[in-house]
């Protein structure tokens, strides 16, 4: 009976949350324990793997942003500060530093990459529509999305098992559906530009803490 | 008519018709809406039911106005016949100006277009308005993401937010437009004429503003393109008779991308993002009427095709074909790709396969020395070699060695059986397909005998040396090999492959130098074996001989002087082919008056008599018609294709008195003095060897009195001479020689006997009676080496025998030529010291040291199999092995 209840109630709920994540709808995730469902004891190398994933994302972020700009045309590449100011997005703040507690860093990372994951979904969908021939850009978007999902999985495991955090309030960007093309491109530009900055900070901050962990 | 009859009934029965009154049908329920993507106003209205009942033909006058001032921008008469069933009337209007830019209002009036009614307009309906974008604090620009055809005019509008002012409009970062007045401009309409497509889809348009709003610009993108082109070049195929796939050429670029552009094919199967292909299951249907429709926001184009699946032909191959490419050059980059088509019922080529790039091909060549096989290859970074060899016919475990990337050769030892040698190049990823070479058995009667093939001189220029050969159908390729540095121990072995229809090549190398003789061997290649076809020698440029013939007066009378220079080499040490000799005679007279000579004037005015010997093998000349008791100066110069060097020294000679006979006695370590009875050399027992006959024209030298008995004072000296013969024969490698040795031994009666190790004719002759000249010969020899010290590059001369006495016999001359040829044809690389006769050759070191001037050395086999005796059999054996040394050049991948 308990198994049946789980299948009937929790799984659809998780699926629903997951789907909403994917479409990038603004959503406050405050559901207790939903984050830590199905998590198990982390493998010993998860912390190090997490750090390496951040390092990998940091290493590829600038190229992704540059290629994105190239494919959007002149106004964005030539008027970057005007058009791609990250103030227009809801990109989460990343105020932790090397002196912060590891737990706080993990939470901050989780917020950043949860936001990024949803935004990448929007950006990828838009670019598949607007630039279907931009194979390299699409490939990099897909790869970054996959790495981000892996990173979220690792962070979830660390938060739930090592740091006993079962709830993190996360925000997502605006859905680009219904936006005009210019706005879609602009939002992607804003998010990716901010992503380059934040993932660099994350790579800097992450190293000493994870090595202690 | 059936429909009209009720109407007619109504017309004639109603009072309305009878009175011909003006009937007004005022448009009612007017409703206006917008289709923003199409920038279209949608207008709906109605008229009274009575009009519908009569199914009247009516005209509606429709007006469209913009802004609050109601400026009419469009008037249109809309004719329609009313229907009883569908009462709502529709009309639409596409606006040039984006509908968001301003409010749009519509009003309508009507008139019955029927002769039975008065044609009077009804009153106007009320204006029905749809509002434009309402001003708030956000600035806007319209239209958004509009798609237009190239060359169109496009109207934009900027809507400034509250408390903001439009500064300018910027299109594609090139065209600026400014509002008419700088005062409180919150709306602006701009039309861009004849827009062109951009390199990147989406031309940006900006409105820049100033004011209190938190955003000081608004932006949009304009997509400029072309309607789709008609699909053409349709072709369909099926690979499994289940699914039919069609491809076509969509035509020129429309500059529009994304899902807005699509192509529909059979049964409206939508294609993927790249609208050039669609496919569907074949099923039972065999004939298809295929319609291709290309769509994009600017229009659509269709094309129809009829497709009969019956016309398809089945092409299949269960094999995995492979082919071997020949004629490839080593260290050359190649790119390979392939496509296939049906051999029968050819329809079309398949698409090209993925291109494979092969960075280089490595060639391996074995050079046989005895039964030691030396494999050469060209070093390539990161490539090592795996070598495996096994007996062909007998089952045995294959042997295997790995060679590092740094080595460029290795030697393996095999016995007399036939062997298969496989060589595979290996990098850090994988091995190549092995190359296979077959080494024939030692006693294989079918092997090519190199001795049957003569050395051929070829011409060279600064562009290279031209190597021709006779191409036949017997071979599937040819190989030419040579050494870049033939005088060096590490000769830098080279080879090139040519395909079967090549019959010549021009070999050149940056290493080629003038005055160096290069030797080229040509092989025919068939299957895994290669067959020696011939040897070619040539120079890029011949130079004059640097070494003068060492002329020697060997005979003199009162009227003649004989000068010989038999030790003069003609081998590869010469900087050109020796074409002949010039003998110069300097007389005391100012003019040359010797009969048979030509005049030769020197730069200092001296005139010499000049005789030309055009046969390079002739190394003796008799100067005739001299005066008795006269002093002459003689000089001999050799000339090549590069000419000759100036005379740098003379031999002075005084002719004898003019006596009728000359008797000369020579006391040379003999007990008796010269007797009145002159011994005849032709009758001497010492010269009575089988097969040796002295020419009747033999000339005795002054010291040529031959005793009947000779006491050898120095055995080793005699041995040295014998060994010289040895060395000469051993040094000849490429000919199958049945060498025989002439041993002079004293019999019991004290007679000098000649014995031979083989019944064949002697190839050289040593008369120990002439050993008295050993000292002279040695000095000549020493002189030679002294001269070479100044030119060490001539060190290879050292194996040329310098010391023997000429027997001017025809046979002997022939033999000497053979010896010279054999030496010329030597292709072994290293040199080793001449062995002592008692020393087994097997004990000889395989010298790799540079030749020392103080020792006499011949060329011999590098790494040759040990020869333990000089018996016929052994020499045979050696020759057999060397004669089987047809060089086999391999291309990896050939198997």
UniProtKB/TrEMBL annotation, chain A:
Keywords: Cytokine, Secreted, Signal. The keyword Cell membrane does not apply. Transmembrane segments: none annotated. It is found in: Secreted. InterPro entries: 4_helix_cytokine-like_core (IPR009079), Leukemia_IF (IPR003624), Leukemia_IF/oncostatin (IPR001581). Residues 1-24 form the signal peptide. SUPFAM superfamilies: 4-helical cytokines. GO terms for cellular component: cytosol; extracellular space. This is Leukemia inhibitory factor. It holds the Pfam family LIF_OSM. GO terms for biological process: blood vessel remodeling; cell morphogenesis; cell surface receptor signaling pathway via STAT; fibroblast proliferation; gene expression; immune response; leukemia inhibitory factor signaling pathway; lung lobe morphogenesis. LIF has the capacity to induce terminal differentiation in leukemic cells. Its activities include the induction of hematopoietic differentiation in normal and myeloid leukemia cells, the induction of neuronal cell differentiation, and the stimulation of acute-phase protein synthesis in hepatocytes. It comes from the Eukaryota. GO terms for molecular function: cytokine activity; growth factor activity; leukemia inhibitory factor receptor binding.
UniProtKB/TrEMBL annotation, chain B:
Coiled coil: none annotated. One of its GO terms (cellular component) is oncostatin-M receptor complex. It is found in: Membrane. Its main location: membrane. One of its GO terms (molecular function) is oncostatin-M receptor activity. Residues 545-658 form the Fibronectin type-III domain. The keyword Membrane applies. One of its GO terms (biological process) is positive regulation of cell population proliferation. Pfam families: fn3, LIF-R_Ig-like, LIFR_D2, LIFR_D4. It is a single-pass type I membrane protein. Keywords: Glycoprotein, Membrane, Receptor, Repeat, Signal, Transmembrane, Transmembrane helix. It comes from the Eukaryota. The keyword Glycoprotein applies. Belongs to the type I cytokine receptor family. Type 2 subfamily. This is Oncostatin M receptor. It comes from Gopherus evgoodei.
